Amino acid sequence: MRGRWAIPFGAASGLLAGMLPMPAAHADAPPSLRVMGQDGACPSPKQVATVLERMLPRTKVTADAGAITAAEVTVSDQGPRFRVNVGGQTRSFDDGAHQCAERARHAAVFIALVLDPPAIAEPSSEAPAASPAAAPTAAPPPPKAPERRPDGWRWDAALGAVVLVAPQAEHRQTAVAQGIAAFVRSKRGIHWGLGVGVAHGELRFDVATADAWWIPIDVALGFSTRGGSWELGAEMGPNASILSIAGKDLKQAQRQIRVEVGGRGAAWSRFWFTEKFAAFLSASAVVRPYPYVLDIDPRGGIGEMPAVWLDASAGVAVMLE
Prior knowledge:
Elements: E1 2-5, H1 12-19, E2 32-37, H2 45-55, E3 60-65, E4 73-77, E5 81-86, E6 89-94, H3 100-115, E7 154-166, E8 175-187, E9 190-204, E10 209-227, E11 230-248, E12 256-272, E13 277-287, E14 293-296, E15 300-304, E16 308-320
Parallel strand pairs: 1-6, 2-3, 2-4
Antiparallel strand pairs: 4-5, 5-6, 7-8, 7-16, 8-9, 9-10, 10-11, 11-12, 12-13, 13-16, 14-15
Helix pairs in contact: 1-3, 2-3
Protein backbone atom coordinates (compact mmCIF):
# COMPACT_ATOMS: atom_id res chain seq x y z
CA MET A 1 0.00 0.00 0.00
CA ARG A 2 1.44 3.38 -1.05
CA GLY A 3 0.34 6.92 -0.21
CA ARG A 4 1.56 10.51 -0.30
CA TRP A 5 1.04 12.96 2.57
CA ALA A 6 1.69 16.69 2.51
CA ILE A 7 2.65 17.02 6.20
CA PRO A 8 3.35 20.29 7.97
CA PHE A 9 6.60 19.79 9.82
CA GLY A 10 5.24 21.12 13.12
CA ALA A 11 2.71 18.26 13.47
CA ALA A 12 4.26 15.28 11.69
CA SER A 13 4.58 12.97 14.68
CA GLY A 14 0.93 13.25 15.68
CA LEU A 15 -0.32 12.75 12.15
CA LEU A 16 1.87 9.73 11.56
CA ALA A 17 0.75 8.15 14.80
CA GLY A 18 -2.88 8.57 13.82
CA MET A 19 -2.46 7.27 10.27
CA LEU A 20 -0.46 4.11 10.94
CA PRO A 21 -2.32 0.94 11.96
CA MET A 22 -1.48 0.15 15.62
CA PRO A 23 -1.40 -3.45 16.84
CA ALA A 24 -3.02 -4.41 20.11
CA ALA A 25 0.22 -5.72 21.62
CA HIS A 26 3.63 -4.07 21.89
CA ALA A 27 6.29 -5.39 19.46
CA ASP A 28 9.96 -5.25 20.29
CA ALA A 29 12.25 -3.26 17.99
CA PRO A 30 14.81 -5.32 16.03
CA PRO A 31 18.30 -5.63 17.56
CA SER A 32 19.95 -4.11 14.46
CA LEU A 33 18.83 -1.99 11.56
CA ARG A 34 20.50 -0.74 8.39
CA VAL A 35 19.35 2.51 6.70
CA MET A 36 20.23 2.83 3.03
CA GLY A 37 19.96 5.80 0.70
CA GLN A 38 21.64 7.76 -2.04
CA ASP A 39 24.95 9.52 -1.48
CA GLY A 40 24.30 13.27 -0.94
CA ALA A 41 20.52 12.75 -0.70
CA CYS A 42 18.22 14.96 1.38
CA PRO A 43 17.92 13.41 3.90
CA SER A 44 21.05 11.29 3.92
CA PRO A 45 21.06 7.82 5.50
CA LYS A 46 23.44 9.13 8.17
CA GLN A 47 21.02 11.90 9.17
CA VAL A 48 18.13 9.44 9.48
CA ALA A 49 20.25 6.93 11.43
CA THR A 50 21.42 9.61 13.89
CA VAL A 51 17.85 10.57 14.76
CA LEU A 52 16.65 6.95 14.79
CA GLU A 53 19.32 5.92 17.33
CA ARG A 54 17.68 8.20 19.90
CA MET A 55 14.22 6.79 19.20
CA LEU A 56 15.32 3.11 19.26
CA PRO A 57 18.00 2.98 22.00
CA ARG A 58 18.02 -0.87 22.07
CA THR A 59 18.63 -1.13 18.33
CA LYS A 60 22.00 -0.83 16.64
CA VAL A 61 21.39 1.49 13.68
CA THR A 62 23.87 1.74 10.79
CA ALA A 63 23.84 3.87 7.65
CA ASP A 64 24.95 2.85 4.18
CA ALA A 65 25.11 5.42 1.33
CA GLY A 66 25.30 4.17 -2.21
CA ALA A 67 23.18 2.27 -4.67
CA ILE A 68 19.95 1.22 -3.01
CA THR A 69 19.57 -2.58 -2.72
CA ALA A 70 17.40 -4.78 -0.59
CA ALA A 71 17.65 -3.53 2.98
CA GLU A 72 15.57 -3.13 6.12
CA VAL A 73 15.06 0.62 5.52
CA THR A 74 15.49 2.72 2.38
CA VAL A 75 15.15 6.50 2.08
CA SER A 76 14.82 8.00 -1.41
CA ASP A 77 15.22 11.70 -2.26
CA GLN A 78 12.79 12.63 -5.06
CA GLY A 79 13.35 16.37 -5.24
CA PRO A 80 10.32 18.17 -3.77
CA ARG A 81 9.38 15.00 -1.84
CA PHE A 82 11.08 11.99 -0.26
CA ARG A 83 10.03 8.37 0.25
CA VAL A 84 10.62 5.96 3.12
CA ASN A 85 10.25 2.17 2.89
CA VAL A 86 10.36 0.01 6.02
CA GLY A 87 8.82 -3.35 6.88
CA GLY A 88 6.87 -3.50 3.63
CA GLN A 89 5.27 -0.09 4.22
CA THR A 90 6.04 2.93 2.05
CA ARG A 91 5.19 6.54 2.62
CA SER A 92 5.95 9.67 0.58
CA PHE A 93 6.30 13.11 2.17
CA ASP A 94 6.12 16.48 0.39
CA ASP A 95 8.78 19.07 1.26
CA GLY A 96 9.55 21.62 -1.44
CA ALA A 97 11.77 23.60 0.97
CA HIS A 98 14.37 20.78 1.19
CA GLN A 99 14.83 21.00 4.96
CA CYS A 100 17.05 17.94 5.31
CA ALA A 101 17.17 17.89 9.11
CA GLU A 102 13.37 18.01 9.29
CA ARG A 103 13.10 15.33 6.62
CA ALA A 104 15.39 13.08 8.66
CA ARG A 105 13.34 13.60 11.81
CA HIS A 106 10.03 12.73 10.11
CA ALA A 107 11.53 9.71 8.34
CA ALA A 108 12.83 8.45 11.71
CA VAL A 109 9.40 8.94 13.34
CA PHE A 110 7.74 6.90 10.60
CA ILE A 111 10.35 4.12 10.85
CA ALA A 112 10.10 3.96 14.65
CA LEU A 113 6.30 3.77 14.56
CA VAL A 114 6.44 0.86 12.10
CA LEU A 115 9.16 -1.10 13.92
CA ASP A 116 8.30 -0.28 17.54
CA PRO A 117 4.67 0.88 17.74
CA PRO A 118 3.30 1.87 21.16
CA ALA A 119 1.22 -0.67 23.06
CA ILE A 120 -2.54 -0.06 23.21
CA ALA A 121 -4.50 -1.72 25.99
CA GLU A 122 -7.84 -3.23 24.99
CA PRO A 123 -10.73 -1.67 26.92
CA SER A 124 -12.69 -4.01 29.21
CA SER A 125 -16.35 -4.68 28.50
CA GLU A 126 -17.35 -3.10 31.82
CA ALA A 127 -15.38 0.10 31.29
CA PRO A 128 -17.38 3.07 30.09
CA ALA A 129 -16.85 4.02 26.50
CA ALA A 130 -14.12 6.57 26.10
CA SER A 131 -15.24 9.94 24.90
CA PRO A 132 -13.98 10.77 21.44
CA ALA A 133 -10.83 12.84 21.38
CA ALA A 134 -11.40 16.47 20.83
CA ALA A 135 -10.56 17.55 17.35
CA PRO A 136 -7.42 19.64 17.26
CA THR A 137 -8.23 23.26 16.86
CA ALA A 138 -6.62 25.04 13.99
CA ALA A 139 -4.06 27.60 14.97
CA PRO A 140 -5.29 31.15 14.38
CA PRO A 141 -3.80 32.81 11.31
CA PRO A 142 -0.88 35.12 12.03
CA PRO A 143 -1.86 38.76 12.38
CA LYS A 144 -1.72 40.69 9.18
CA ALA A 145 1.29 42.93 8.98
CA PRO A 146 0.38 46.61 9.12
CA GLU A 147 0.25 48.22 5.73
CA ARG A 148 3.21 50.49 5.23
CA ARG A 149 2.83 53.75 3.41
CA PRO A 150 5.54 54.05 0.75
CA ASP A 151 8.08 56.73 1.56
CA GLY A 152 8.57 57.67 -2.08
CA TRP A 153 5.37 59.74 -2.52
CA ARG A 154 4.69 62.30 0.18
CA TRP A 155 3.41 65.81 -0.28
CA ASP A 156 4.03 69.15 1.36
CA ALA A 157 2.40 72.56 1.08
CA ALA A 158 4.19 75.87 1.61
CA LEU A 159 2.69 79.30 2.26
CA GLY A 160 4.69 82.49 2.59
CA ALA A 161 5.04 86.21 2.00
CA VAL A 162 6.80 87.26 -1.20
CA VAL A 163 8.52 90.44 -2.36
CA LEU A 164 9.11 90.97 -6.10
CA VAL A 165 11.61 93.43 -7.59
CA ALA A 166 11.98 94.39 -11.25
CA PRO A 167 15.31 96.16 -11.98
CA GLN A 168 15.21 99.65 -13.44
CA ALA A 169 14.87 99.88 -17.22
CA GLU A 170 14.58 102.58 -19.87
CA HIS A 171 11.69 104.97 -19.04
CA ARG A 172 10.83 102.96 -15.88
CA GLN A 173 12.03 103.04 -12.29
CA THR A 174 12.74 99.96 -10.19
CA ALA A 175 9.39 98.27 -9.50
CA VAL A 176 8.46 96.58 -6.22
CA ALA A 177 5.44 94.38 -5.50
CA GLN A 178 4.38 92.46 -2.38
CA GLY A 179 2.06 89.52 -1.93
CA ILE A 180 1.61 85.94 -0.82
CA ALA A 181 2.32 82.65 -2.58
CA ALA A 182 1.44 79.01 -2.00
CA PHE A 183 3.20 75.95 -3.43
CA VAL A 184 2.43 72.22 -3.34
CA ARG A 185 5.23 69.75 -4.07
CA SER A 186 5.50 65.98 -4.32
CA LYS A 187 8.26 64.72 -2.05
CA ARG A 188 10.94 62.55 -3.57
CA GLY A 189 14.42 63.15 -4.97
CA ILE A 190 12.96 64.39 -8.23
CA HIS A 191 9.67 66.16 -7.66
CA TRP A 192 7.12 68.32 -9.40
CA GLY A 193 5.08 71.16 -7.99
CA LEU A 194 2.35 73.70 -8.59
CA GLY A 195 2.28 77.25 -7.22
CA VAL A 196 -0.12 80.19 -7.23
CA GLY A 197 -0.03 83.62 -5.62
CA VAL A 198 -1.21 87.21 -5.69
CA ALA A 199 0.89 90.40 -5.60
CA HIS A 200 0.27 94.16 -5.82
CA GLY A 201 2.58 97.02 -6.78
CA GLU A 202 3.18 100.14 -8.84
CA LEU A 203 5.03 100.73 -12.08
CA ARG A 204 6.50 104.25 -12.28
CA PHE A 205 7.30 105.43 -15.79
CA ASP A 206 8.73 108.79 -16.82
CA VAL A 207 5.32 110.24 -17.73
CA ALA A 208 2.84 108.10 -15.79
CA THR A 209 2.32 105.67 -12.92
CA ALA A 210 0.35 102.40 -13.22
CA ASP A 211 -1.33 100.36 -10.49
CA ALA A 212 -0.95 96.62 -11.07
CA TRP A 213 -2.08 93.28 -9.64
CA TRP A 214 -0.48 89.97 -10.58
CA ILE A 215 -1.72 86.40 -10.12
CA PRO A 216 1.30 84.20 -10.95
CA ILE A 217 0.82 80.49 -11.73
CA ASP A 218 3.87 78.20 -11.74
CA VAL A 219 4.47 74.61 -12.79
CA ALA A 220 7.89 73.26 -11.79
CA LEU A 221 10.10 70.20 -12.01
CA GLY A 222 12.86 70.04 -9.43
CA PHE A 223 15.18 68.07 -7.18
CA SER A 224 15.50 68.14 -3.39
CA THR A 225 17.83 66.53 -0.88
CA ARG A 226 17.65 66.36 2.89
CA GLY A 227 20.28 65.92 5.58
CA GLY A 228 19.00 65.83 9.14
CA SER A 229 16.62 68.76 9.68
CA TRP A 230 17.86 70.75 6.68
CA GLU A 231 16.53 70.39 3.14
CA LEU A 232 17.78 72.04 -0.04
CA GLY A 233 16.01 72.14 -3.38
CA ALA A 234 15.97 73.72 -6.83
CA GLU A 235 13.36 73.76 -9.58
CA MET A 236 12.40 75.34 -12.87
CA GLY A 237 9.42 75.47 -15.18
CA PRO A 238 6.95 77.66 -17.08
CA ASN A 239 5.26 80.68 -15.53
CA ALA A 240 2.08 82.47 -16.51
CA SER A 241 0.79 85.56 -14.75
CA ILE A 242 -2.61 87.21 -15.01
CA LEU A 243 -2.00 90.97 -15.01
CA SER A 244 -4.57 93.63 -14.12
CA ILE A 245 -3.24 97.16 -14.72
CA ALA A 246 -4.66 100.69 -14.74
CA GLY A 247 -3.10 104.16 -15.05
CA LYS A 248 -3.14 106.39 -11.97
CA ASP A 249 -4.06 110.09 -11.99
CA LEU A 250 -5.21 109.78 -15.59
CA LYS A 251 -8.60 110.89 -16.84
CA GLN A 252 -10.86 108.08 -18.03
CA ALA A 253 -8.26 105.46 -17.15
CA GLN A 254 -9.56 101.93 -17.60
CA ARG A 255 -8.20 98.73 -16.07
CA GLN A 256 -6.84 96.24 -18.58
CA ILE A 257 -6.37 92.46 -18.19
CA ARG A 258 -3.42 90.76 -19.79
CA VAL A 259 -1.62 87.40 -19.53
CA GLU A 260 2.18 87.38 -19.32
CA VAL A 261 4.14 84.19 -19.99
CA GLY A 262 7.74 83.23 -19.30
CA GLY A 263 9.99 80.85 -17.40
CA ARG A 264 10.90 80.57 -13.72
CA GLY A 265 13.90 79.15 -11.84
CA ALA A 266 14.10 78.90 -8.05
CA ALA A 267 16.25 77.65 -5.17
CA TRP A 268 15.10 77.15 -1.59
CA SER A 269 16.09 75.81 1.80
CA ARG A 270 13.95 74.51 4.63
CA PHE A 271 14.52 73.68 8.28
CA TRP A 272 12.20 70.96 9.65
CA PHE A 273 11.79 71.85 13.31
CA THR A 274 9.21 69.05 13.78
CA GLU A 275 8.28 65.95 11.79
CA LYS A 276 5.56 67.88 9.94
CA PHE A 277 6.47 71.58 10.03
CA ALA A 278 9.34 73.55 8.53
CA ALA A 279 10.40 77.17 8.00
CA PHE A 280 11.61 78.04 4.50
CA LEU A 281 13.43 80.72 2.51
CA SER A 282 13.39 80.83 -1.27
CA ALA A 283 14.67 83.00 -4.11
CA SER A 284 13.61 82.87 -7.74
CA ALA A 285 13.77 84.70 -11.05
CA VAL A 286 11.08 85.01 -13.70
CA VAL A 287 12.04 85.93 -17.26
CA ARG A 288 9.44 87.13 -19.79
CA PRO A 289 10.99 87.33 -23.27
CA TYR A 290 8.11 89.31 -24.79
CA PRO A 291 7.03 92.04 -22.35
CA TYR A 292 4.01 94.20 -23.10
CA VAL A 293 4.37 97.83 -24.23
CA LEU A 294 2.07 100.18 -22.33
CA ASP A 295 0.22 102.85 -24.35
CA ILE A 296 -1.49 106.05 -23.14
CA ASP A 297 -3.70 108.00 -25.52
CA PRO A 298 -2.73 110.24 -27.19
CA ARG A 299 0.98 109.86 -26.27
CA GLY A 300 1.32 106.22 -27.36
CA GLY A 301 3.86 103.87 -25.81
CA ILE A 302 5.34 104.99 -22.50
CA GLY A 303 7.45 101.93 -21.67
CA GLU A 304 7.57 98.15 -21.39
CA MET A 305 6.44 95.85 -18.62
CA PRO A 306 9.38 94.30 -16.73
CA ALA A 307 11.13 91.51 -18.61
CA VAL A 308 12.81 90.17 -15.42
CA TRP A 309 11.37 89.82 -11.91
CA LEU A 310 13.46 88.76 -8.92
CA ASP A 311 11.66 87.63 -5.78
CA ALA A 312 12.33 86.39 -2.26
CA SER A 313 9.89 84.48 -0.12
CA ALA A 314 9.71 83.22 3.48
CA GLY A 315 7.08 81.21 5.29
CA VAL A 316 6.06 77.84 6.65
CA ALA A 317 5.78 74.40 5.01
CA VAL A 318 3.68 71.50 6.32
CA MET A 319 3.97 67.80 5.44
CA LEU A 320 0.79 66.23 4.06
CA GLU A 321 0.00 62.52 4.58
